[in-house]
């Protein structure tokens, strides 16, 4: 197994917290959801924004690529679920089926359906092509932080702050299973690549690995000292990465549950983590407004190329921001001496 690379390269990605990120199926693009109301599509190799999508009214909490990579779905505080064209950045549809903010979205493996989980405790299932609401599932008394389709697309798993995990039949909306899994609520859910295990990140700082067929806990990882906001499997299923309010990312052995290494660099909570499709890179997003790229193979020749490109893009953005501020100041009208009635009333000379 490759030795995790201790260096990472940061990139300022937003003017506010980055709550969600996702990699395209080919690994060439990165989508980010941030609290400045924007969804952004990034060229990973260049570290540059290809499209900045405006439409959400308020914070954006979640993004997910369609399996074919052509669309990105998002959800946020405005209660809407939106679909965007990756190539053009155009909004394809936006729908509101929830009464409160949308925390999570996930595409069915075939891409025909999209599920969303909300603060209102409901799950909506949408037709991806046109945004038709297929079904609303009710059953959680508290908000749904995570939704994820099974590998065969026939079941949907939800994780909630009501401390339960539920499994639903996608076609009928019937509840198939419910388990009390934690004491303080669930933040995220993900299936293992082979579909046999379910990964939960929890408010109490733990990560649970569950066997859905047997309905039992396989193991629990408890090295984080604060809530774990996100946990994901590597594409080969051998590693788990978790991001926490303790500002760190931990890489775990998915078989033994042992901590492999701890990555530091973010200055505030790490809300989201995602592996590249080839498993050699890890990306993270944080309250510190940065995304970071981590190389999991110290011998990977792409490291220097990506690092150089991201640093150059960051420098150019800083320069562009300074130039824009300078230009704005130059365009401001000079302050004229007070005169006339206004001047006489508020201190101007007669």
TrEMBL record:
InterPro entries assigned to the protein according to its UniProt record, in alphabetical order: WD40/YVTN_repeat-like_dom_sf, WD40_PAC1, WD40_repeat_CS, WD40_repeat_dom_sf, WD40_rpt
WD repeats: 11-52, 53-94, 95-136, 137-178, 179-220, 221-262, 263-304
Top-level taxon in the UniProt lineage: Bacteria
Cleaved signal peptide residues: none
Pfam families: WD40
Keywords (A to Z) from UniProt: Repeat, WD repeat
Official protein name in the record: WD40 repeat-containing protein
